[in-house]
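Ticket #4471: complex job returned nothing on first submit. Input attached below:
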Amino acid sequence: MANGSSPDDALAVSMPAALAEIPVLAERIEAFCDSHDIGPGVAHAINLSLDELLTNIVSYGFDDPAGHTIDVRLEKAADAVTVVLSDDARPFDPFSAPDPDTDAALEDRPIGGLGVFLVRELMDGVEYRRVDGRNVVTLNKRIGTETDATE
Amino acid sequence: MEIVRDRADEIEIVAVEGRVDSTNANEVEETLVPLLDAGGGTVLVDLENLAYISSAGLRTLLVAAKKSKASGTRLALSGLQPGVKEVFEISGFSKLFDIYDGRPAALASLS
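Support reply: We reran it on our side without changes. The output follows.
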């Protein structure tokens, strides 16, 4: 993974479009959160959201992901963390899919379709834009209140 | 990710440890499906040392739950950690599974 130049409160990573790179990115984000007073609940929410979105981009966004990179930028402000993902995969708005029915009985639950729903639920804000031929997803997660932690 | 198999009385125990994501969820499925397809009996999936699960892992567990229902094999989970528990609650999976605090409580109840 290449390092971008970043100020103290930001982490910029240009990641090869490969599934095996997702846990590598997750470790860097955990380290960033640890050293920036961002709690484990928020770190988990960010990492899971990135995992879901990156897995979709790598798995379905390209005819062949080899040689493509995905830019991930994390920025910590006083009250929130903002994450921006930018890729040159085919145009796709991940938030266009309807939410699954989480009250359905076992036999009626479809296999799959939960990933982006988790992102929506775990984040406080999500946005998709198509900019200059790239998919740009922006995630926002509030910090500073323990209610955002998983326990 | 590691899968550790064990057996207590008639209960098949599958401990899934570490991280389950899209790179390895199929290994969990390949372990669970034959146990569930066998029919009858009880399978306990112990998640005490599972730190992380993504939707790929949830998908696998949903496949397992459907198999369990179809074959009449009892399926239970135990030891969900905070991050995993949160994901279960958001996705409605808490309502779909028989979940115990830890392995001892599960074995006591399932035996």
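Chain A touches chain B through 30 residues (CB under 8 Å). Closing as resolved unless it happens again.
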